[in-house]
Design goal:
Shape: elongated
Radius of gyration: 25 Å
Protein name: Phage shock protein PspC (Stress-responsive transcriptional regulator)
Largest sheet: none
Keywords: Membrane, Transmembrane, Transmembrane helix
Helix content: over 70%
Structural class: mainly alpha
């Protein structure tokens, strides 16, 4: 059962880029490389946004003065 499912997914999943490449008229290997590069770029952008948000939160914590609460007295 698992072999049948794996074969089905491999046949239909790996064929997607080839079919798109045929429609666009480009080589499938170039399209696969483009897909891999775009995946790394999107992960890099997400990580960069995370670092920028972390920096601004660190900056906010350094600027904002924490006052004691009435209940801490």
């Amino acid at each position: 059962m698992f072999d049948k499912l794996r074969n089905f997914l491999e046949f239909n999943g790996f064929n997607v880029i080839s079919r798109i490449a045929d429609r666009l008229g480009v080589r499938a290997s170039k399209l696969r490389i483009l897909y891999i590069y775009l995946s790394f770029v999107t992960m890099g952008i997400t990580f960069a946004v995370y670092l920028i948000i972390a920096f601004f939160l660190w900056l906010k914590d350094g600027i904002v003065i924490r006052r004691k609460s009435v209940f801490d007295l």
